[in-house]
Amino acid sequence: MNALMMTWAIAGATAFGVITRPFALPEAIWAVIGAALLVALGLIGISDAWAGILKGLDVYLFLIGMMLLSELARREGLFDWLASIATAHAKGSPRRLFILIYCVGIVVTVFLSNDATAVVLTPAVYAACRAARVKDPMPYLLICAFIANAASFVLPISNPANLVIFRGETMPSLLRWLSIFALPSIASIAVTFLALYASQRSALAADSLASDIHETELTPTAKLAALGLCITAVLLLAASALGLDLGLPTFVAGCLTTASILLITRQSPTATLKEISWSVLPLVGGLFVIVEALNRTGLIDHLAGYLAEGARDFPAQTGAMAGVVVALVSNLVNNLPAGLVAGSAVQAAQVPDKIAGAVLIGVDLGPNLSITGSLATILWLTAMRREGLDIGAWRFLKIGVVVMIPALAASLATLAIL
């Protein structure tokens, strides 16, 4: 077996390990094993592997900042307060609570990113379900997973992957972005809601909410955690408008908020840091090494060539095909590495905005098919496991088929007719 085939075989085995988690080992273990094998077999040099890891620096900073803010909000009771507000407004109706959580998910995703929805909103939704004493919290928690991807191309900051597909001089202005993605986003959000609600309608009809919910008091430190989240949202919008990376401002906001609350409460940072899911970072780092190795096989040049030729001869068909293919591939290898590869190919091919937009929709929305399709979904799964909950890959796939496919078709069709 030559080096090219070995690289692809290891990449495929790594993706399989991350998705299926053999022996119940965490996803990060398989990503790290795959990266280590590539280095050990000489398929990628240590310096090149390190270069691949460094390419994810902005993602690491973003994740650390968001995980800090989420853990603070959980520990200081912000989620419990939000839960009491949500359940009070639901007025005993499971359907009303479902709609309310979906709307909140849209807002969080649009202004704080899809990863924030997974990390920040999931614990809040679980707290709301616990406060309302629902029979099965899964229909409400599924919202966090699906809306995190469905609403992730409303704004450039709604998904860090957006800044990979469009970057540098190719990044459209905010008005231009909205002219391209506003209607496809509306289609994605609306169709995802209808399909997800239809899939969970029976469970919601059989459920009931407690009506004797008392509003939880919002403590001063919880207010400070909320302020940290709001400031982060403003910083992300400003960074996006200026074309800056999102990781550093998120990291700084998370660290400053953490330091402020710990100083006020005179707590040690050990307990907070201990609760953070640090395994996400080696998972991302391992995937970046896999992508770097694949890039060195000439993959980017081949894809760029196909895109450029298709854009010249069959632009409409190329856009639709690219969106569908990227959506499916994102579920096989995770949308983070798929987005890195696709973004590099789009930049090299210099395709029109509509084709680049179709690729972006595939990267953002496509991962709603599988449980490990996107980093946001993996973060969502991690947040649920912290609460003692889990969902199998097959169960998620059955829902994903019903939800993702019509939403993807509606979004790509809307983009094509603009």
User: Topology as H/E string?
Assistant: HHHHHHHHHHHHHHHHHHHH
Helix content: over 70%
Number of helical stretches of at least 4 residues: 20
**Ends apart, CA distance between termini:** 47 Å
C-alpha-based Rg, rounded: 21 Å
Taking all residues together, what is the mean pLDDT?
A: 86
Structural class: mainly alpha
Beta-strand residue percentage? under 5%
Pick out the low-confidence regions.
Answer: none
Instruction: Provide the domain count.
Output: 1
Largest sheet, in brief, is: none
Question: Shape, please?
Answer: globular
Number of strands: 0
Descriptive account of the structure:
The chain is an all-alpha fold and 418 residues long. It has one domain (3-417). It contains 20 helices and no strands. The protein has helices at 3-20, 27-40, 46-54, 57-75, 78-90, 94-112, 114-132, 138-150, 162-165, 174-205, 220-241, 247-265, 269-274, 280-295, 299-313, 315-333, 335-349, 353-365, 375-386, 393-417. The radius of gyration is 21 Å and the shape is globular. The model has no long low-confidence stretch (mean pLDDT 86).
Pick out its properties:
418 residues; mainly alpha; single chain; globular; 0% strand
Detail the topology: elements first, then pairings.
Elements lengths: L2 H18 L6 H14 L5 H9 L2 H19 L2 H13 L3 H19 L1 H19 L5 H13 L11 H4 L8 H32 L14 H22 L5 H19 L3 H6 L5 H16 L3 H15 L1 H19 L1 H15 L3 H13 L9 H12 L6 H25 L1
Helix pairs in contact: 1-2, 2-14, 3-14, 4-7, 4-12, 5-6, 5-7, 6-7, 6-8, 6-10, 7-8, 7-19, 8-10, 8-19, 10-20, 11-12, 14-17, 15-16, 15-17, 16-17, 16-18, 16-20, 17-18, 18-20
